[in-house]
Amino acid sequence: MPTFVRLLVVVVALAGLGALGAPASIANTAATSTQQDQLKVERTKRIKRCKKPASKAQKRVRKANRTMRKAKKRLRRARTTRSAKTVRKAKKRVRKTRQRVRKAKKVAKKAKRKSRSCRNGVKAWYQKELDKLKPPVDPPVDPPVDPPAKWESSCAAVPSNSFKACGSVGDAYVTGTDPGTALTLINGAGQTVKTGVADDFGAKDFYDVKPGPGYAVKAQPSGEAAVSSGKFRILAPDENPPESFFDPIDLKPGLNYVEMRDGVELAMTVRLPFGKTMADGPFPTMIEHSGYETAAPHDLLGSFLTGTSDPLAPTTSTAIGALIGPQSGFAAVSVQMRGSGCSGGAYDLFGLPTTYDGYDMVEAVAAQDWVRAKSAWAASHTRESASCLQPAPSHLTWRQSRRCR
User: Fold this and answer.
1) What is the pLDDT of residues 253-277, one digit of tens each?
2) Where would you tag: which of 30, 63, 72, 116 has the fewest CB atoms within 10 A of its CB?
């Protein structure tokens, strides 16, 4: 057999094999196209049925308007005859016709609403039927989920019988030393950054420190050998903890102590709406941040009604979270400003640690199951308004009250 004949046979065979699968594909495409055409025809019919009642109602309105024009024309003619009886009949006809016009317009307006709703339903039905004709698509494969980021503590690891040294946002602080102890802050290069002396509570704050790792504190008690802390880092502004840092926080009704990003614990008192329990949640929630006695756990209303002085009751200046919020159906979280009341840390009104407490307290409250839809209202008194200047977590719904502005 000649070579070109063999090639011709092979080509014909391959074409035949391809033709075997082609009719099925062409048939499927043709069937889909036919079904789509049928759906379009059915959609047109349904939309016409939807428009028909509204069209009829509109015709009645036009007819009533024509009748109204005729009635008014007859009234004008009747007035020219100067016949009181004819004028009264014409006026009566005008009043009745006006009522029919109003009724027709009312019916037409109702029919128009129904027609619009009907057409929207037809469009939704048509889109649903089209989706059924689409070939099935394999579901996307979810990418592997990275484990949640772990927040590295900003406090130094030191022996239990030693002092505590931690980094904050642009600051460093020391607690647990003897009063009068000489303290030296050293950077990662071993250079002295700042020096100071522990106060009467054995604490010291170093302000305006450059963010970064490798810091340490050397303590030199009088007449004793120097003791150095472990390494710690100074936090940078906007170096915010991940959500996993706040997930373990469990706020209960009453007084709680919650750790901020720099290890300082703030007092937070939770007050549910009056007469409610945790089982009735979730609740719309407001946060009150104040340097006055806002986190005092006792009842302000009871103290006010009885006229007794309760040192563990909130002051009347913090009635938003202690009284007004719970009476209005809100859960309230009253946060004591750092360095005041029962909260730890140093009082620094416009310091960065105080400012970023606003971010951490919102995250801590939003992590609770009894808070509705991850939303919170913030209320802050005049001198604590710095915490309201801190941008809220982007994944949360955040509203500021007028007292934050």
Assistant:
1) 988 999 999 989 999 989 898 888 8
2) 30
